[in-house]
Amino acid sequence: MGRPYDTERLNRRPLGRFTALPVFSANAWSSIAYAPDEILLTLALGGTAALSLGPEIGVAVVAVMLLIVMSYRVSVRAYPEGGDYAISRANLGPWAGVTVGAAMMLDLVFTVAVSVAAMAHYLAAVWPALGGAETPVAVVGVVVLAMASIRGAGRGRRTPALLAFALLALLFGMIVTGLVQDALGTLEPATSAALEPVPDPAFADGLGPLAMAVLVLRAFSSGSALATGVEVPASNVGAMAKPRIRTARFVMLAMGLIAAASTLGVMYLADRASVVFVLDPATLEAAGGGAVPADYVQNPVLAQLANTVLGPGSLLAGALILLVVALLVLAGHSAFKSFPELASRLAADGYLPRQLLTRGDRLGYTNGVLLLTLAALALVWVFQAQTALLVQLYVIGVFLSFTVSQLGMVRHWGRQLAHTPGTRARQAVRTRRLVNLVGFVVAALVALVVLVTRFGQGAWVALLAIAAMVFVMSRIRNHYDAVASELDLTPTEDARALPSRVHAVVLVMSVQRPTLRAVAYARASRPSSLEAVVVDLDKDSTRNLLAAWDRLDLPVPVTVLASPFREMSEPLIRHLRAQRRTSPRDLMVVYIPEYVVARGWQRLLHNRATQRLKDRLHREPGVMVASVPWQLSGGRGDTHRLPESPLGQTRTGPDQ
Q1: What is the pTM of this model?
Q2: How far is CA 221 from CA 53, 211, 639, in A?
Q3: What CA–CA distance (Å, rounded) separates 45 from 59?
Q4: Rounded CA separation 16/25 (Å)
């Protein structure tokens, strides 16, 4: 897709602070578009009264996110390259590294699915005609991101930075304006303020202490989606300007503070504007009872606030919502960059197929992009682009990788402490270990809360997917290790040993020029013996073939193999094995004439049986397959003369 890039384009100029900040923070900042929604829709299960807890839960979620950011700022000192996978593998062993790699890959798949799903809902807030078509819009979003990634688009730095900074300017402008309106008492209620959520049957008896605790924990686990993406700068230190570690630490701190301030502002204004957001708008009812207006359309929380604070349908409100869409696209594009790179790192270590190491014409890991595309499309289609349902499976993988990597950092600092001289230096190591220990404890507790509160909502599916990925990757690594062990040279065996004799076998399926070419080439190789083999699939066809062969009077004997079940490979395999049984060091070479067609679609019409036969012969020890190609003109009327054949016959063109 596009003119190929040369390899020199990989050596790109590193990013400075204020360019790296928006580029590597898009994933984390995009969580602002759906994390408040998840908190409110969970609290809505308890009715209108529970919605007042939104700001407090927002503070708790922000605190967790900032603690994780601080832990990564310490981790990047020791591991500026590789991120969570490298940390876990180096300090806790291969199994921990593979587990984190699987969790991170799943996280990136969900990042794409959640980003395009949220994007579809925000587009519907701007253009109501798209309401109800969120799934097709999200599918188109995934496909467009995939095509852009394969083509290498989005490699610029200025456009993403300008879009991100424009969003921050409008977002914080809206927050400040809303706070001023709230202080002056002029803040209008949101369009959803006149509606009330119907409590879930589980909370029909009211919010007692136990029910309140369960609801708060579920809302907290839903809002923990805010912490997704904070690890991206730690995995891209090599792309930042020198001093890289200092630049990365600045980016992480600024990213965390901006995400925290914007989330707290949105949660506070949502509470003051009485924003209501539920999973199913059909569960709403008008305040004081009654039906919901027929023209009511539920928009995301940020879109509701934009219309409330900046004016319904105003230019600024529309611009803010469209910039949120752009940020979600950037987050999806960031995942399309990170996933193939992580997959290539795992492939380099032997845990994924080596095809994922190959770069395409535009320098991207095309196979990794295609793998991510298929997985994201499956999620979007299965969950019908419902952001709330996707997030239920999202956070568990994120906090699993956080927990394991922070445990790895605790172990790393413990090892370094034993070899660090000097009181001040040892105290610095202890401080870093304490920060990572706090990060580990917090991440582990959040992971436990998410697992317990979401197990019935689908968290077990995410765990099962991670376990399945770990199992598959371990099997792939075992296979590569076994292959390497078998292929390594040993003192007692040398692959340079020559075979005792070479026996040539020409597979004859018709008496035409491709067959004669195969016979000629087999004779030219001067084998110890040469025979033509015909597999008797049909008596009449075999009789006609032998008659044609006799008329040519070729000095090559013909062996006819019986095939009562009309199967080609097994009779030939038995024949080859019988010949090798008396002399295992002999080499059997099977010459197979094949057609090379002019057009791609014509491949479906030729060589299907021979391809299956070659696959079967490749599994036989002591047997080689020699493909003898015959280039067909494809019916284009080519009349050019072909070179003189080794049999001394002049060919004027292939038979049609």
Answers
A1: 0.81
A2: 14, 15, 73
A3: 20
A4: 14
